[in-house]
Amino acid sequence: MNKKVTTALILVLSVMLVITGCGNSNSSNGNGNKNKNTSKNNETKETEAVSGASKASYTPYDQLKEKYDIIIVGAGGAGMSAALEARAKGMNPVIFEKMPVAGGNTTKSSSGMNASETKFQKEQGIEDSNDLFYEETLKGGHDTNDKEMLRFFVDNSASAIDWLDSIGIRLNNITITGGMNEKRTHRPEDGSAVGQYLVKGLVKNVQEQGIPLFVNADVKEITEKDGKVNGVKVIFDQTEEKTITAAAVVVTTGGFGANIDMISEVRPDLEGYVTTNQVGSTGDGIRMIEKLGGTTVDMDQIQVHPTVQQEKSYLIGEAVRGEGAILVSSEGKRFTNELDTRDNVTAAINKLPEKSAFLVFDSGVKSRAKAIEQYEKMGFVIQGDSIEALATEMDVPADQLKTALDTWNSAVTNKQDAEFGRTTGMDNDLSGAPFYAIKIGPGIHYTMGGVKINTNTEVLNKDGEPIPGLFAAGEVTGGLHGQNRIGGNSVAEIIIFGRQTGMKSAEFVKAQ
C-alpha cells in the first residue's frame, strides 16, 4: 500500500513539474483584436506555436517583479535583440509578449537578411558596397525612404551579421532577392528559412542571459509621469492586470497587417486580400504610442507580396525566385521579370485575368531553397517527372510551358533575358527533373508605415522631439522603407534597430 502511495505522489509531482516547466498558460487569446476571439483563432495560434519557440523557455508568472530597468513590449526579432543588447550594457530588462509564443512575424520570415560588405560576402568573393545597398533600397522605395534612417541601416548591416554570428546565429548562405543587383540576402548555412532559425537562436540567448520573457502578457497601456515614460499596464492570461514600472520602455510590437479594420482605414482598396501576418500583428504599439503624443508616417504604404499561397495565406519566399524559379500564367507563359520589386511583380500578376500565377522550378532550385521542403509538407507543391507531366498537373498547355522553359533556359545560357530584362537569379537553368510548381497570388504582407523614430530609435512627437524614455524598432515604426520594401530588409531592420533600441535605452537609463 505504501509503495502505491509513493508511486502516486511521484506521478503527481512529475505532472506538476511539467506544468511549471511550460511556464505561462497559453489559453489567452491576447491578439488585441476583439473581432477574432474565436476558437478558430486559437487553433491558428496553436499551429503557429508548433513552429515557434519552445514554451519551456518562458518565465513563470511567479517570477514577475514590480520594477525593471527597461520594459520591452513584443518578443519578435527586434524585441529580443533589444533585450540582449540592454543586458550587455548592464541593464535588467524584461520582455512582455501578448501571444502564447515568442517570435511574432519574425518566425514567418523566409528569404533571409540583407546586409552589405559582410565578412561572408568577402569570403565568397561577392563584391558589394553600402552605397550600392543604399541606392538600390532608395530606388526600390521610389526615393521616398527616410534617407537618414536608410544610411544608418545600410552602414550598420554588416555589424549586425557579425553580432548574430557572435551569439551562434550564422547567416552565411547568400542569395539574391527582388530589387537588388548583388547577392546580399543572408540565410542559415543550410539555406533554410531564416525566421524560425533566428527566433530559436534569439530565445536561446535570452534564456542563457537570464532575461525574463513572459508570454500571454498583453500590454494595454504605456504609462508616464512628469513627462517621462515610466512603465506599462499589462494583463496576464486575460485575467490579472498589473502596473510594472521602468525607466524606459521599448516598443517592438510589429505592424498591423492582421488588423483589417486598421488597414481599411488607410487602404480600403485592399479589402478582400489574404494576409501573411501572424494574428498578433494588430497595431497595438502604434495605438499606444499615439496616445502618448507620438506621430506616425507612411501609414497608407502597405506592401502586398506577389507570391502568397492563397488557401492558407502562406508566404512563398523570394528566395525561390532568387534561386532561379520563374512565374507563368494559367496559359503557361512568362509575363514579367520575376525579380523586379514586389509592387511591380504584384501589379503584373493583378493584370492577369485570374489574378494568380504559378511559380515553376526544378530539382536544382528545390535543393538550394530549403524552404521548399516546408511548402511541400504543407501540400503546396505540384510535381511532374517531365515538363509535360507538370503541365498536366497544373492544367496549363504543355506546349506553352515547354516553350517558356526552353526560352528561359536559353536566356540563362546567354545571360540575357530578351523577354523581360531579368538580370539576377540566372546562375542555373531549369532543366533538372523532376519539375515543380506552386500556385500563388498577392497577399497583404508588410505595413511600411508606423511610428516616427530617429536613428537613436527614440519615438518622436508631432514637433519632432523625442518622448523621454520611449523607444521603438521594427515593423511598428515607419519611414525606412518608403513606398516599397525590398525583400530581406525587414529582417535586417529588426536586428539593426532592435540592437540600437537596447543600447540607446540603456544609455538613457544610466543618464537618469
UniProtKB/TrEMBL annotation:
Residues 26-54 are annotated as: Disordered. GO terms for molecular function: FMN binding; steroid dehydrogenase activity, acting on the CH-CH group of donors. InterPro entries: FAD-dep_OxRdtase_2_FAD-bd, FAD-oxidoreductase_2, FAD/NAD-bd_sf, Flavocytochrome_c, Succ_DH/fumarate_Rdtase_cat_sf. Its cofactor is FAD. Residues 69-491 form the FAD-dependent oxidoreductase 2 FAD-binding domain. The keyword Oxidoreductase applies. Belongs to the FAD-dependent oxidoreductase 2 family. FRD/SDH subfamily. NCBIfam families: flavo_cyto_c, PRK06481.1. PANTHER family: FAD-DEPENDENT OXIDOREDUCTASE 2 FAD BINDING DOMAIN-CONTAINING PROTEIN, FUMARATE REDUCTASE. This is Fumarate reductase. It comes from Paenibacillus etheri.
